[in-house]
Amino acid sequence: MITIKSISIVIPSEPTPGGLLHLSESDQVVQFSHASVIHIYRPNTNTNTIPFSFETMKSSLSRALVHFYPLAGRLHWIEGGRLELDCNAIGVQLLEAYSDAKLDELGDFAPIGVVQDLVPKIDYTTPIEEWPLFLVQLTRFSCGGLCVGTALCHTTVDGISATHFISSWAKLAQGDNLEDHEMPFLDRTVLRSSEPLMPPRFDHIAYTTKPPLLIGSKDAKEEQKKETSVTLLKLTKDQVEQLKKRANYDTQLQDPTIRPYSRYEAVAGHMWRCVCKARSIDNNHDDQPTRVRLVVDVRNRLNPPLPQRYFGNAVFLTITSTCLYGDLLSKPLSYSAGKLREANERMTEEYIKSALDFLTSQKDVSGLRSKFDVRGDTEGPFQGNPNLSLGSWINVPIYDIDFGWGKPVYVGPGLLDTEGRSFIMPSGVADGSLNIAFCLQTQYMDSFKKYFYEDFN
Questions:
Q1: Is 176 one of the catalytic residues?
Q2: Residues 117, 357, 373, 402: which is the catalytic one?
Q3: Known catalytic residue: 377?
Q4: pTM of the complete model
Q5: Could you read off the pLDDT of 87-130 as tens digits, one per residue?
Q6: For residue 70, what are the contacts with CB-CB under 8 A and spacing of at least 6?
Q7: How far from 108 is each of 103, 328, 383, CA to CA, in Å?
C-alpha cells in the first residue's frame, strides 16, 4: 500500500560546530529509541497554500539542521550505561513515499496497521552509533493528502523540543527565516546536579520502586506476553466539561479553596478508574494495588526557569502513590484526580534538583531508563497491567506545524506498543475536544470502552 521511492541523508546546509555535547541526567533516563509521530494534511483546496515540493522539504530540512545541528549527530555509549552525543553532522534520514490509498481509507489514524507504515523504521539490532537521531517519511496519497511521519530519538529531545524543531523546519519550508527568539538553546549544562554533589533530599520513588504486580504473580512476564489492542478515543468538549464538573463537584463542596481539577486530571482520573473496572473482571480483588506513571515538564518549575527554547529533555518521571482498585472504584472521580495532582505537584524545584543529584550519584543508569515503544522490547519494568502510563500532549502546540499546506487535520503517535500506555491529545478541530491514543490488553478493551463512555449525558 505504501511504496518508498527514495531514501536520502540530509546534512546541515552550512558547517556546524563539532565535538561532544553534554547530555543531562534527564536525557540519560529516557529510552534511547525513537518516538514516532504522524502529521496528516488534507489535499490543498486553498489557493493561498504552497504546492508540495519534495526538494523544498529537503532543502529546508538541511537549513533547519544548521540551527538544530545536534540532531544531525550520533550517540555513543560511555561508562555507567550513559550516552554521549557526537555532533559530527553525519545527517538525518529522509524518505519519500507514495500510497495509492486515499486518506479516508486510514480511518481515524489510530496507530495500527498501515498507519504504522507512515513512520520510518529503525533497525535497533545495529550499533547505536549508526542510528540517525531524526528520520522523516513524506508520504503522498492518491487523493493529494500528505503525511509527515517523524521518528526522533528520545534521548535527544522531549515532545516540546521535538515540536519546536519540526515547527521551525515548517517555517523554513514556507520560505521564512527563523528569528532570534526562535533559535534553540543548546547548552544542557543549565539542567545539572549540584556542585559539589549533594545527597538526595527525597526518596525518588519513580526510580527506586517497582510497579505493583497482579495479586498472586511473582513477576509481570505473563502479562507482557498477552495480546494488546490500540484504540483512538474521542471526547467532545461537552464530555470533557462533564468530567471536569464531576471531578470538581465533591471537592468544591468540601473546600472551595482547592484549585479546580484540570482537563487532564479529570480525563486521566476517569481513564484510571475505567481501566481498573475493566481489568477487575478477571481480577476481582478490591485490594489489588495500582499506580499511574506521569511525565512532567519542568521548564517553568525551576527558579529561574529554563530558557524558553531549551532544547533537550526537560521532563522527569513521577508516579502516583499506590492505590487500591476498591478505593478508586468506590470513591468519586475527585479521588483519582487528586492522586494524579499529588504526583504532579511533588515535582517542586527542590524535588527536581534532588532528582538530578540522585541520578548523577548512580554509577549505572541502565536500570532506571524508561521503556518505550519498540516491538518485542521486554527490558525495563513493565508499566502495564495493573498499572498505567498516562502522557499528555494537551499543551503542546502540535497543530501549529504548517509547511505551507495549511495546518494538519490530525497529529498523533505513529506507534503505540506498550500495554497501559496512553497519550491524551488535543484534536485538530481546536474546539476543546480531545483525542486519546491508548494501548490495552485485548481482553479488556471492549469493557474499558463501555465503561469509558457509559456515564455521559
A1: no
A2: 402
A3: no
A4: 0.96
A5: 999 999 999 999 999 999 999 999 999 999 999 999 999 999 99
A6: 21, 85, 87, 133, 156, 186, 311
A7: 10, 31, 26
